[in-house]
């Protein structure tokens, strides 16, 4: 049985006063500052988050989610003041994460597996910080993990983000090292920026004088150069359309013989790359035996020569690109190049660093007009048992059109007049992919049209092959470089005609001529949706965003040329301008360390000169306080020497207290009293009393 009494009626004024008091208490509670250890820990976690963020774009999704969950767990423990999880909880979690790394990468070694383990170790270590040495492990692990982001990207944006992370780590490290009153956060950030600024002069000297090492960083294993986008030596319908969704730069081109910010017309911008002549019914692949079958690359060029200075991004392949058709091998400073009978430009090894070269091309030519049937055998072969409707359709075309040139035009008219469409999201094709494309879906990207066209040509005994590369480009009006992006990846066909040789035919132009006259993204062909579709960044766009992107691309290009491309050859040129070209590594290192020592001295001496000077008797007092603190008798922050002596009287034995009290009394009289005793007499007395205290 319960008895409830009615609540007394309160005046409105008292209710309002109570509500106001509660509101004031709530606001006051929200404004209460965090305890110092909590604030420092949260600052460290924020710095670690900045270190982990750049890796989330390359790491597997479950790795990023795991690290963020562990960080959130650590933050919750910090804010609520709960204890750290015990080892029997952390060990299974860490073991499970390491097992996931091994199951995914099948190894614990290599770039990707190693970086992934470092990410997880950093997140786990934050849940195990119980001593100051654990703090330093987290900080040093963060600095090392910060370096590994440059294995994936070395843009100016990633460098700026890394500097922000360094400042955050330095600020966190400084915060944990204060023993007394902690300065405000902005003052600590300024000190972190100052420390970073002091390192800049030595960094510049190291950049120019430290010997440049050629090859992968730290001799990393075979996966050190993985993850690059670009064309491959095979083509299956769908892979180029994936590249067309990427806005990454493939290469930049300068035309030195053209007026500023101009270049050849768009229809001439076919950047020749890889010739694919072998077809297995589904995929086109590069035929390496071609270089043994033909040794004659007879070309009769006409028309003006076009010089191109190309800066090729790292792609992990051997292919070089140039306007169709190169007249000679590319001119490279670091390595040589070759031009084979298929007019493919090749580097001697995979391109794992940004490469600069020059190539000359002519767009009018008569190429290999006198090849024999034996030379052309591989360009008319088709696998048996594939695409029967295509073969039947081709036979009917040949019967009605015996002339090769008219037959080619008939196929292009077929693409142009029938209901074919250009799309980056075509339907999936079956085993007879060309049949499905020509007579069912009739929707595809450039590789669909090039593949179907070449199969039709071969079905009527016209030698044909697929060529992949890039088409188009966007001139950057800021620095005068034409930017060719992965979205400009393209495939076209080449057919061989009597007395004319190899002729370029682009069946995509019959369906989507705007793809050739404009870039993919300039007419919305890349399928952008949402806000991305409203931001016209194409070549013909005059919007603010387009101009801003050109400015950023120009800055990145300058960063690439003057910073990232500072290789051993450029270092030798720089040293030659200084008259130091004949120096070997030991002498160069000696000069580097000599200049570095001078710079460190120039930076350190003013700091030492302006360091606060401590009076000799103050040093003796601080020494005594330190020794007493080691004996479990620390001086409180608010205590002066007299108050300190009074408190020590109840804790120290009389024999120990007497010299301590005498020292503190004499120090207080000297420091704060009106004594006129000369310092030359006071210091010996203080030292004697200090010796007795020991």
Structure description:
49% of the residues lie in helices and 12% in strands. The chain is α+β, with helices and mostly antiparallel strands and 694 residues long. The strands form 6 sheets. Strands 10-13-7-2-19-18 form a 6-stranded antiparallel sheet, with no helix packed on it. The chain has a 5-stranded antiparallel sheet with strand order 9-3-17-20-21. It has a 3-stranded antiparallel sheet with strand order 1-5-4, with no helix packed on it. Strand 20 (489-497) and strand 21 form a beta hairpin. Helix 2 runs antiparallel to helix 7 (156-177), helix 22 (641-648) packs antiparallel against helix 23 (654-672) and helix 23 (654-672) packs antiparallel against helix 24 (679-693). It is elongated and about 125 Å long. 27% of the residues are buried. Residues 1-10, 28-32, 215-228 and 522-541 have low confidence and may be disordered.
Brief synopsis:
The protein is of the alpha+beta class. Helices cover 49% and strands 12% of the residues. The chain is built from 24 helices and 21 strands.
């Amino acid at each position: 049985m319960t008895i409830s009494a009615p609540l007394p009626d309160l005046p409105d004024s008292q209710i309002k006063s109570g509500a106001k008091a509660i509101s004031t208490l709530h606001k006051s509670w929200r404004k209460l500052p965090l305890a110092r250890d909590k604030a420092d820990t949260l600052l460290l976690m924020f710095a670690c988050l900045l270190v982990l963020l750049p890796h989330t774009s390359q790491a597997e999704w479950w790795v990023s989610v795991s690290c963020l969950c562990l960080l959130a767990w650590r933050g919750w423990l910090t804010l609520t003041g709960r204890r750290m999880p015990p080892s029997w909880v952390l060990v299974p979690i860490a073991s499970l994460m390491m097992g996931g790394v091994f199951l995914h990468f099948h190894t614990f070694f290599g770039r990707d597996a190693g970086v992934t383990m470092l990410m997880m170790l950093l997140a786990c270590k934050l849940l195990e910080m119980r001593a100051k040495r654990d703090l330093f492990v987290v900080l040093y692990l963060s600095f090392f993990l910060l370096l590994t982001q440059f294995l994936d990207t070395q843009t100016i944006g990633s460098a700026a983000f890394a500097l922000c992370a360094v400042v955050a780590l330095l600020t966190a490290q400084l915060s944990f090292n204060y023993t007394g009153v902690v300065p405000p956060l902005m003052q600590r950030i300024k000190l972190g920026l100052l420390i970073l600024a002091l390192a800049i002069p030595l960094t510049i000297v190291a950049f120019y004088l430290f010997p440049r090492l050629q090859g992968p960083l730290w001799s990393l294993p075979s996966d050190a150069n993985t993850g690059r986008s670009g064309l491959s030596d095979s083509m299956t319908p769908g892979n180029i359309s994936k590249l067309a969704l990427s806005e990454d730069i493939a290469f930049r081109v300068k035309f030195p013989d053209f007026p500023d910010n101009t270049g050849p017309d768009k229809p001439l911008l076919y950047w020749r790359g890889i010739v694919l002549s072998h077809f297995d019914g589904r995929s086109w692949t590069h035929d390496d035996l071609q270089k043994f079958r033909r040794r004659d690359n007879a070309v009769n060029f006409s028309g003006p020569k076009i010089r191109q200075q190309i800066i090729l991004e790292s792609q992990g392949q051997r292919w070089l690109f140039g306007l169709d058709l190169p007249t000679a091998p590319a001119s490279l400073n670091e390595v040589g190049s070759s031009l084979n009978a298929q007019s493919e430009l090749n580097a001697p090894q995979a391109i794992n660093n940004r490469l600069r070269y020059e190539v000359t091309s002519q767009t009018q030519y008569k190429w290999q007009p006198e090849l024999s049937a034996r030379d052309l055998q591989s360009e008319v072969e088709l696998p048996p048992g594939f695409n029967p409707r295509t073969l039947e359709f081709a036979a009917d075309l040949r019967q009605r059109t015996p002339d090769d040139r008219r037959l080619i035009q008939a196929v292009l008219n077929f693409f142009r007049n029938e209901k074919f469409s250009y799309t980056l999201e075509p339907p999936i094709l079956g085993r007879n992919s060309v049949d499905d494309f020509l007579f069912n879906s009739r929707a595809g990207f450039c590789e669909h049209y090039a593949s179907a066209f070449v199969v039709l040509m071969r079905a009527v005994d016209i030698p044909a092959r697929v060529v992949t590369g890039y088409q188009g480009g966007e001139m950057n009006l800021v620095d005068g470089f034409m930017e060719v992006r992965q979205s400009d990846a393209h495939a076209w066909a080449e057919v061989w005609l009597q007395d004319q040789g190899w002729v370029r035919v682009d069946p995509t132009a019959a369906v989507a001529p705007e793809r050739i006259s404009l870039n993919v993204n300039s007419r919305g062909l890349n399928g952008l949706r949402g806000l991305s579709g409203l931001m016209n960044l194409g070549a013909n766009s005059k919007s603010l965003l387009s101009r801003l992107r050109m400015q950023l691309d120009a800055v990145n290009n300058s960063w690439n040329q003057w910073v990232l491309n500072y290789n051993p050859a450029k270092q030798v040129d720089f040293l030659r301008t200084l008259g130091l070209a004949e120096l070997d590594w030991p002498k160069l290192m000696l000069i580097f360390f000599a200049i570095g020592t001078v710079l460190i001295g120039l930076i350190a001496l003013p700091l030492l000169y302006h360091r606060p000077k401590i009076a000799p008797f103050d040093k003796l007092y601080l020494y005594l306080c330190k020794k007493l603190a080691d004996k479990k008798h620390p001086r409180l922050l608010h205590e002066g020497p007299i108050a300190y002596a009074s408190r020590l009287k109840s804790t120290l034995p009389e024999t120990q207290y007497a010299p301590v009290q005498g020292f503190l009394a004499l120090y207080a009289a000297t420091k704060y009293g009106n004594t006129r005793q000369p310092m030359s007499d006071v210091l010996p007395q203080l030292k004697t009393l200090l010796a007795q205290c020991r």
